[in-house]
Design goal:
Blueprint lengths: L11 H5 L26 H17 L3 E5 L3 H16 L7 E3 L11 H9 L4 E5 L16 E5 L14 H4 L4 H16 L13 H6 L2 H16 L5 H10 L3 H5 L2 H17 L5 E2 L5 E6 L6 H9 L9 E6 L6 E8 L12 H9 L6 H5 L3 E4 L3 E7 H11 L30 H4 L4
Parallel strand pairs: 1-2, 1-3, 3-4, 6-7
Antiparallel strand pairs: 5-6, 7-8, 8-10, 9-10
Length: 423
């Protein structure tokens, strides 16, 4: 029997009392010893990047751009491409390398593929960073890494566009907005330390920018992993509207929407302490981050901190998992840190689990992390979390209080169906 709407609708009073969620712009940027803001990077690092790009453009030699597969990576890659051509580089001298499904730039397969293109300059954008050898095995090749992920490790010997060519800003502003929304969400305030983007949003509506982000992300999520379609569409575009009419991108988004709908109804299991909700799916498409983000906005409890969606069908022999902070936990004190939480669980192991999971475990952002690890290792991680085990008597009623927040969602299933059934 279908439950009445009143069962899940919060009172108007509770809506008024909804807690304010911190925005990216609410966090104070790092500062140097003199109190100067170090954002998006130190002045020295930014100047080094400018010099590098000028040298690339003036050299008239082969340049290889290696962007990540998502909207912010592709946007950043095209911004670099257009900056180089504005500085005088011939478009024919600029090539792109798109990393294969399930790989990183540090895999030997990718390093060899990049080397075969014979670049003299390599610009790696939004690929994350980890310890390792040079980007490719050629000391004559100069490399620049542009990234914003949390990391203390970098490739061996690895060394902002507006000030290089002020006239290019109006031409790429919408890409800056698209990339930022793609990574930080479409509710960003665009307050300091971000630059003033009013002119961009007067020219391009936020809806067109957000819809373009959705389309750019779609091809790389398909089982075909068709990143090149998104790159080519973005490279040819002069505004978000050009992306909105791209037939291949529209087809990919429809495919992904259908797969998300098919996979999103999996029932969760919880860690024994109630802090982590785990959803398991099996899909050749990269829908686990989408589903994690969706459920993070809907699950709600006093203990819940992290939503983890594990996909055992994306890569053979591997589990790809994505984690997001539950909306109800975003203002916790101390703040939830997904990377620290995952590593704390792994550290409970008394064997060599951390070593076996390798570099692709708990990487990314504190607020959005995950990993790619072996099936055996993932099951060991779940055992350490005690997923599915009954909670202590003091918290037995915790899961039964989970509610769906009052937000419009395309999901047709109801959380009450999981937690409200009578035994």
């Amino acid at each position: 029997m279908k439950r009445k709407a009143v069962d899940i609708v919060e009172s108007s009073n509770s809506k008024r009392q909804r807690e304010h969620l911190l925005d990216y712009c609410d966090v104070r940027p790092r500062q140097d010893d003199q109190g100067a803001t170090l954002w998006p990077a130190s002045p020295g690092a930014i100047e080094s990047a400018r010099v590098f790009l000028k040298d690339c453009a003036s050299s008239q030699q082969k340049i290889l751009i290696v962007p990540d597969k998502d909207a912010d990576g592709l946007d950043a890659g095209v911004i670099v491409h257009r900056t180089l051509t504005a500085l005088g580089a011939a478009a024919s001298s600029i090539d792109v390398h798109l990393v294969a499904k399930g790989n990183t730039i540090h895999d030997e397969e990718e390093r060899e593929a990049m080397k075969k293109k014979n670049p003299k300059y390599i610009i790696v954008v939004d690929q994350g960073s980890s310890a390792g050898p040079e980007v490719i095995d050629d000391l004559a090749v100069k490399s620049l890494i542009i990234d914003h992920h949390l990391s203390d490790d970098f490739p061996k010997d690895a060394l902002i566009c507006k000030d290089l060519r002020p006239d290019i800003a109006p031409l790429i502003g919408y890409m800056c907005a698209m990339g930022t929304h793609g990574d930080l969400g479409n509710t960003l305030k665009w307050a300091p330390p971000f630059p003033d983007m009013q002119d961009v949003f007067k020219t391009h509506t936020k809806k067109s920018i957000n819809d373009a982000v959705s389309l750019l992300n779609a091809p790389r999520r398909t089982a075909k992993f068709d990143v090149v379609s998104a790159w080519e569409a973005l490279l040819a575009a002069s505004s978000p509207k050009d992306i909105l009419t791209n037939r291949r991108l529209l087809s990919a988004r429809a495919e992904i929407n259908e797969e998300v709908e098919r996979q999103t109804h999996t029932a969760p299991k919880f860690s024994k302490d109630g802090k982590i909700a785990v959803f398991r799916i099996n899909s050749a498409a990269q829908v686990h981050p989408v589903i994690a983000t969706r459920w993070a906005g809907h699950l709600k409890s006093a203990k819940l901190e992290i939503v983890l969606v594990a996909n055992s069908g994306y890569l053979p022999g591997k589990v790809n998992f994505s984690c997001r902070i539950a909306r109800c936990a975003r203002n916790r004190d101390p703040p939830v840190n997904i990377i620290s939480s995952l590593k704390a669980v792994a550290d409970l192991d008394t064997t060599d689990l951390v070593t076996r999971m390798g570099e692709n475990f708990a990487r990314g952002h504190k607020e959005a992390s995950g990993g790619i690890i072996g099936i055996k290792e993932f099951e060991e991680l779940m055992a350490l979390m005690k997923v599915g085990e009954k909670s202590d008597p003091s918290s037995e009623g915790e899961k039964k209080t989970l509610k769906k927040t009052v937000q419009k969602s395309p999901q047709k299933n109801k959380l009450e169906g999981y937690f409200g059934k009578k035994s």
